[in-house]
Design goal:
3 helices; two-stranded antiparallel sheet; mainly alpha
């Protein structure tokens, strides 16, 4: 169980990282925006979303099942897919929220 969670955590992290690099074509470290003095998460938001999505998916998939019913390969694929998907959902939400905030009041 513990090794499964560590595996899920690692591959959720990789999934979030992969989505971030594919989506933004860069990797940004966390920083403070000099103009607004606001903390910017950089690429960490996608990575954290990938980890959380992978852990939630793992827990939902394995509740009520035995550890032997999920192979190592399946576990890796579940975590990687959930990491990429979770990161994509958060990115889409952030983009939509930003677009709504920038939209003029009359529209």
């Amino acid at each position: 169980m513990v090794m499964d969670l560590i595996t899920v955590l690692i591959f959720g992290l990789i999934g979030g990282f992969v989505h971030n690099v594919l989506y933004t074509k860069s990797f940004d470290l966390p920083h403070t925006d000099p103009g607004t003095k606001k903390f910017m998460w950089g690429s960490l938001d996608d990575i954290i979303a990938g980890i959380v999505a992978a852990i939630i998916t793992y827990l939902e998939t394995t509740v009520g099942t035995t550890a032997a019913s999920v192979s190592g390969t399946q576990l890796i694929l579940i975590a990687l897919t959930a990491g990429i998907g979770g990161s994509a959902v958060i990115s889409a939400y952030q983009k939509n929220t930003t677009l709504q905030a920038v939209k003029p009041a009359g529209e």
